[in-house]
Design goal:
The chain is an alpha/beta fold. It is built from 9 helices and 14 strands. A 7-stranded mixed beta sheet has the order 2-10-9-8-5-3-4. Strands 11-12-14 form a 3-stranded antiparallel beta sheet, with helices on one face. It starts with a strand and ends with a helix. Bound molecules: 4'-deoxy-4'-aminopyridoxal-5'-phosphate. 4'-deoxy-4'-aminopyridoxal-5'-phosphate binds next to helix 3.
Length: about 375
Amino acid sequence: MTRVFNFSAGPAALPEPVLRQAAEEMLDWHGAGCGVMEMSHRGKEFTSIVERAEADFRALLAIPDEYRVLFLQGGATQQFAQIPMNLLVGGSADYLVTGTWSKKAYSEAKHLAAALGGAARLAGSTEADGFARLLRADELDLDPNARYLHLCTNETIHGVELRESSQLPPTDAPLVADMSSHILSRPVDVRRYGLIYAGAQKNIGPSGLVIVIVREDLLGRAAPVTPTIMDYRVMADNGSMLNTPATYAIYIAGLVFQWLRAQGGLAAVEANAIAKAQLLYGCLDSSAFYDNRVERSSRSRMNIPFLLRDDSLDEAFLAGAKEAGLTQLKGHKSVGGMRASLYNAMPLAGVQALVDYMRDFSARNG
Ligand code: PMP
């Protein structure tokens, strides 16, 4: 068996020890006589799995007691709808648009707003600048009465990341953040947010699962039209098990959380993320062959888009990379070029192999 270095933006590489453990437990989980996919979500075995997963997730992010953790389905995209259904009723919400994903969230909120008796406002956008940077404070047009302010703290396609609390918009409205593509890559001050959500298929586990961290006081505000299963209050009251949850995805997520804790938690994880990102940006910055168009202070550690200045070499670059065991480097079709996603499961050796390949390719073709 040969495993490649997989730079996919998601579904993305998972830690090899997690996959090995899952394989070992596939037919018989801890003497249960069946695998996790085959057991009742209400039985004591699965209950212990989900309780441990939540406890480890809470420990990693130091989630305060007044926040609930929900294991939901429908991916992050379902949250684009579920958030306005739960939080918008009768008011207006502000949206910051800094890339494809926050634009989609804004567009879904606009689509639903009238039916919810509310409104969604654009409070700032970098679209005219090609989504190549974060918003500056002086560009924001904030509504002091907004029900919430939505932002995406890591734009997976454009490679723009907001990491510092000081970069958050100055508003008293609860912040609602899509952290899908950088959650668990560094410590976060959860108290700065009313709600955080993340699709699993990058730094957490299998796709379909989405984790929501929501402050207690934001529960119970859903519009009357909200389907029962979309109501955060109902899901929180039922321990995310109003219906059958994505059991296997939660189990894998739990193994990933254990793996992260065993590494020393998110401070250690962040140090690795910095080392990996510096290695790749260092290569890009020292070369006239490659280009990254994101403003330096907005650069993502997780998703690094780059261009070959001569795009006629793109196909040869990708073919050679694949041969070298470096896969899924093609950029998103909406922006072209390349993209390397350096999530937690990507080892430093993978980034080193990529950088070695890039230097070699530019020397041969420059
Ligand atoms: N938000 C961000 C930041 C994403 O990267 C993605 C998926 N790439 C989504 C939302 C949508 O996630 P899903 O496909 O799980 O609905």
